Known about the structure:
This protein is mainly alpha-helical. The protein contains 17 helices and no strands.
Amino acid sequence: xxxxxxxxxxxxxxxxxxxxxxxxxxxxxxxxxxxxxxxxxxxxxxxxxxxxxxxxxxxxxxxxxxxxxxxxxxxxxxxxxxxxxxxxxxxxxxxxxxxxxxxxxxxxxxxxxxxxxxxxxxxxxxxxxxxxxxxxxxxxxxxxxxxxxxxxxxxxxxxxxxxxxxxxxxxxxxxxxxxxxxxxxxxxxxxxxxxxxxxxxxxxxxxxxxxxxxxxxxxxxxxxxxxxxxxxxxxxxxxxxxxxxxxxxxxxxxxxxxxxxxxxxxxxxxxxxxxxxxxxxxxxxxxxxxxxxxxxxxxxxxxxxxxxxxxxxxxxxxxxxxxxxxxxxxxxxxxxxxxxxxxxxxxxxxxxxxxxxxxxxxxxxxxxxxxxxxxxx
Length: 377
């Protein structure tokens, strides 16, 4: 082999590496990201206004695709725009991106296109998404304070076990005092954390992974959601959130030409708790048999309050079920707002009690051997 061939061969190797690296750098990360709910809310509102002013749907979609900063959402909107340009309906184009927009959005757009009232339907979808986002944001905001307190408590407890308790153990070893059971348990936990910190962290991560895997199963999700509904504080909040979503979504859907059974099936996918989802699907089956809405949901008294059942009954008698459900949604949304404002004050005594028990148990475990030692002198 000549020197020229060797040079050519060595020069070709870096090019292969460069091409591989360049492919990695060019990988579209947007495929693995989700479109933020705020992007979809702003898009829905702007699209409703644009259509209302008489702007063609295709042009409106193209304009909005240029305004969004989210690359994945931009690609989705351009894809929908291109399909509409080829003669596909808006609803049909959306069906290819149902995972992004959701069945509620697609079904209501389809109904709006059939009725020729797309701008009003989009406005209803915008209000629905906005209200739902506000509820979720308020719940997350209210849970920040308790979460910080709990994390701080756990951090302080671990610090005590790792840094403070070992020093006390050396004192107990020097005086050879007889240690009571609570102190032995405390020392055993401290020894395990100091000597097997990596194992302890591994066990913690393993438990979290196992719980997540269990939660992904149908039985696991049903069990965890049942616990949430039965919990003292979060159970009440969860019911209100699911009832608000049910009422708001059903109200929006009933204003369209979507069949009532389909409305229940779509709403079942919107509510967060799996038990509400199952109840709505069973209610849809009862409605197929000819039962009214009030009787179909009254079979689940632990999920639907007597007030909702009575108000739906009144709505059915007056033919204004959608209006009644809208009022119910507003009531629960205001109730959730007030509950979230008061949540820190509600949870604070419970956190103080738990903190007091933890600190008290640790203090007693440390003081007991010292007290017994003083008694011996």
